[in-house]
Amino acid sequence: MLDNTRAWLLGQIRAAKPSFISKQPHFNFISAHYFWIVSLTILASVLMYATAGGQLAYIDALFFASGANTQAGLNTVDVNLLNTFQQICIYIFTMTSNPIVIHSSVVFLRLYWFEKRFQNMVRDARARRVTISKSRAKAHLDMNQAEMGV
């Protein structure tokens, strides 16, 4: 019974492992969202903490950054106590991580992946396509078709 429980537990842990930690990472669109939000949160928290001059704890900077990047707007310190650079950081990171920017960047990422995946098919289709030469493209004027609008 202990072996069955152990095997079940190991199976659950292996199934819960994210795909980007594996030896062959597979990024899907939700992991691109998560990567964007988490990386911008860490970057903004480091910038806000480094420019605070010792007047802002890192946990407060992290809370500000996560609030700005998730559109929560929560804060632990009065915004008036932040310097101008920190307020600009909050403003810029809020703009770069709003849902419109995130979703449109994921759409462009999806377009890039599809173009990369189907690049050979497009090249083959263009190679098979016959171009119309000028000699074959000369119009044959038929008065009946001209009157019918064809």
UniProtKB/TrEMBL annotation:
The lineage of its organism: Eukaryota, Fungi, Dikarya, Ascomycota, Pezizomycotina. GO terms for cellular component: plasma membrane. InterPro entries: TrkH_K-transport (IPR051143). This is Uncharacterized protein. GO terms for molecular function: high-affinity potassium ion transmembrane transporter activity. Keywords: Membrane, Transmembrane, Transmembrane helix. The keyword Membrane applies. The keyword Transmembrane helix applies. GO terms for biological process: intracellular potassium ion homeostasis; potassium ion import across plasma membrane. PANTHER family: HIGH-AFFINITY POTASSIUM TRANSPORT PROTEIN-RELATED, POTASSIUM TRANSPORT PROTEIN DDB_G0292412-RELATED. The chain crosses the membrane at residues 27-50, 90-113. It comes from the Eukaryota.
